[in-house]
Amino acid sequence: MDGPEIPLVEVVEVETAADFAMATGADESVIADLQQYRSYLEDWNQRMNLVGPSTLEIFWSRHAWDSAQILPLEPEALTWADLGAGAGLPGIVLAILQKNRPGFHMHLVESMAKRCRFLEEVVNGLALPATIHNSRAEDLSLTVDIVTARACAPMTRLLGYAQPYLKRGATALFLKGQDVAVEMEEATKSWSFEADILPSFSDARGRIVRVRKLGRGR
Question: Which residues are listed for S-adenosyl-L-methionine binding in this entry (predicted)?
């Protein structure tokens, strides 16, 4: 059985900082912060595996634009939690974009201490409205508007990480790949949920999963 039909959208090609600014409306200060973030990634990637080295060459499309595209899906949301934040995607990008928005705050949740040290350097260096939590996602008691994740875990496990946040009223926005329908079918064995699969504007193979209700399966 094929997965749910995904609406066709035109992928927005973002290859440069100027392309990103055009796609998002980002001003010079945002572009400067993203450039500095890219430099942090390049530096720290020599010491630990944060992102694939080849993806830094396509930073604006693969990392910046891929992360930024979820922001307009929930434009009123002020508090976010990025689970398995790792290299800071999408959390750092979103925090940069919303840096000067009153009331905005990003919680970066990461269980590996060395990755938290990277996140701390970026957050402090760029003066971002973010807090780093060196913890397992399901062990925290955060109340947020949106919980997000990218390249964190298969849907079955990811829903387990996100469940406490959704119980407290959050909506989930997960960045996923083209096999997400298979992951979601597998997740129905353990979970009952209402979800939409949305197309990605950064990659024709990508998907965004929005989950509003989540409970244990029958």
Answer: 84, 89, 137-138, 150
Distance of CA 20 to the CA centre of its chain: 17
17: annotated binding-site residue? Answer: no
Each residue of 167-209: pLDDT tens digit?
999 999 999 998 899 999 999 999 999 999 999 999 999 999 9
- Is 34 annotated to bind a ligand? Reply is no
Q: Tell me if 212 is assigned to a ligand binding site.
A: no
- Whether 134 maps to a domain, the answer reads yes
Residue 66, domain extent: 17-216
* 68-112 per-position pLDDT tens digit: 999 999 999 999 999 999 999 999 999 999 999 999 999 999 999
Which residue from 116, 197, 193, 196 is spatially nearest to 160, judged by alpha carbons? 193
Cβ neighbours of 201 (radius 10 Å): 21
What's the domain count of the chain?
A: 1
CATH at residue 35? 3.40.50.150
pTM above 0.90, yes or no: yes
Judge whether 138 is annotated as a binding position.
yes
Q: Tokens 């109340």 map to which residue?
A: 143
